[in-house]
Amino acid sequence: MCPKMARHPIRSLVACCASRARVGFCDCAGGGHTKMKATERRRARVAAMSTASALGLAVDDAVVLSDSNRLVVRLTPCDVVARIAPVGYRVFSAAVGAEQELEVVRRLAETDGPVAVLEPRVEPRLFVRDGFDIAMLTYYEPVQSRELPPNDYAHALERLHDAMRQVDVEASHFTDRAADVQRWVARPDITPDLADEDRKLLVDTLGSLRRSIVDRRAAEQLLHGEPHPWNVLDTKKGPLFIDFENCVRGPVEFDLGWVPTVVSARYPDVDQDLVGECRGLVLAIVAAHAWRRGDVKPGRESGVAFLDIVRKGPPWPSL
Questions:
Q1: In this predicted structure, what is the pLDDT of residue 29?
Q2: How far apart are CA 319 and CA 317, in angstroms?
Q3: Looking at domain 150-312, which of 3.30.565.10, 3.40.50.740, 3.40.50.10540, 3.90.1200.10 is its CATH number?
């Protein structure tokens, strides 16, 4: 592990993503990510371009914006964002899935929630081609001359939560995701490079924080699930949230566990102690994904650093 990462692991993770985060397609944070193989990536680009052409959109190229568990491309000259994933892909077993995710986005847009909407020139549904699920989304020109102000971020997240309270869709509980991670991180065949003592640390931390959060019996609702800075576009229309693939039900404090401290501190009427516990759970989830076989993000070097953070315990830093 490099000295800089050892001293400031989260700050280093943020720095390595900063340029891509400004345009909203960084894939370094959040739950783990496998990366498409080159041949699969080429097939995915062709599938997206063919689908767009069949829908009457003008397509000459597909510029890769993000290459992770899902390939995200900007189709030109029609200026549409296509998000492509293997059919049926889910980050965790009880996740909503691509089709349900689009339904969430569609309903949030109807309530004027701060979300990046589906592309209005095509039918609002998931397209399937050559073994890939393809979603067509609106492209937003990013504001690149500034860092998103914490007040704007907090207000946008509050607006999102207000909108999500009006959306009635089935979603798993945030504890289902934590339990899913807890199950596979305990298996040496899935986390072969993780030392036994570190495996026990993660299993125990995930379990104890999950129980402690539930025991607080806070009010619950539909949540984004991962509203970290890399899932927020800073656009001329204001902050817009993307990637609802991991939306869950739980207290708003769970969502706040994914955002910077300067943002969560500006969110009104929440239990900041509960936010802290949720932040610890988030860090344990991210740390675990760094050690799962096949995951390439956040990466092994970051995984060592995140393990050190989990080992130190509270007060928990923000992601």
A1: 52
A2: 7
A3: 3.90.1200.10
Residue 265's pLDDT band (cuts 50, 70, 90):
very high
Helix (H, G, I), strand (E, B) or coil at 47: helix
The mean pLDDT value of the chain amounts to 89
Provide the pLDDT for residue 20. Answer: 39
Can you tell me the distance from the alpha carbon of 73 to that of 113, in angstroms, rounded to the nearest whole number?
Answer: 24
The pLDDT value recorded for residue 31 is: 57
Intervals of CATH 3.30.200 along the chain: 25-138
Q: Which residues of 48-79 are buried (b: 16+ CB within 10 A; e: fewer)?
A: bbebbeebebebeebeebbbbbbbbbbbeebe
CA 116 to chain centre: 14
Question: Is the domain covering 25-138 a CATH 3.30.200 domain?
Answer: yes
CB atoms inside a 10 Å sphere around CB 197: 8
Helix (H/G/I), strand (E/B), else coil: 278: helix
The DSSP H or E segment spanning 100 is: helix 98-110
Residue range 58-75: average pLDDT? 93
Q: What is the pLDDT of residue 7?
A: 42
What is the C-alpha to C-alpha distance for residues 286 and 27, in angstroms, rounded to an integer?
Answer: 12
Q: How far apart are CA 74 and CA 39, in angstroms?
A: 19
pTM: 0.89
Measuring CA to CA, which residue among 31, 97, 116, 137 is closest to residue 245?
A: 97
State the Cα–Cα distance between residues 82 and 72, nearest whole angstrom.
6
Q: How far, in Å, are 1, 138, 206, 241 from residue 234 at the CA level?
A: 32, 14, 32, 9
The three-class DSSP label of residue 125 is coil
Task: Inform me whether the pLDDT recorded for 26 exceeds 70.
Answer: no
Q: For residue 16, is pLDDT > 70?
A: no
